Amino acid sequence: MKTNPLRTCIVCKSELPKSKLLRLVRINNCVQCDFSYKLSGRGAYVCPQIGCIKGILKKGILDKHLKLDVATKEASNILAYLTEYIKQRNDEQIKPA
Ligand SMILES: [Zn+2]
Question: What is the whole-number distance in angstroms between the Cα of residue 44 and the centre of ligand 1?
Fold first, then answer.
């Protein structure tokens, strides 16, 4: 039986198969994007949509989930990186939740 575990976007709370979400993981007090879904560490999932990506930095949602103070500079780096990533991935036609 094939399992397709659902994960919840920390911003819009949509439940989607893990593979449809982006994983952010806390490693050594830094935030990394885990495209392999294999990095160990405290992780958070977010929809590959601009609205949700921006949302993770609002109200400290990401900080809360990763139990980490995400520095503003680091946060804007993540934002820029993910925004670019989503642009490239748009061909895949990921359906908004
Ligand atoms: Zn979302």
Answer: 11
Cα 76 from Cα 31, distance rounded (Å): 11
Tell me which residue of 61, 18, 52, 50 sits closest to 37, measured CA to CA.
18
Quick check: 9 and 18 in contact, CB under 8 A? no
Could you report the per-residue pLDDT of 36-69, keeping only the tens digit for each? Answer: 999 999 999 999 988 999 898 888 898 899 988 8
Residue 32 maps to which CATH number? 3.30.1230.10
Task: Please indicate, yes or no, if residue 29 is contained in any of the structural domains.
Answer: yes
Residue 97 located in a structural domain: no
4 pLDDT higher than 60: yes
Cα-to-centroid distance, 27 and ligand 1 (Å): 22
| Residue 11 Cα to ligand 1 middle (Å) | 5
Distance 50 CA to ligand 1 centre (A): 9
pLDDT above 90 covers a percentage of the chain that reads 40
Ligand 1 centroid vs 51 CA: distance in angstroms?
8
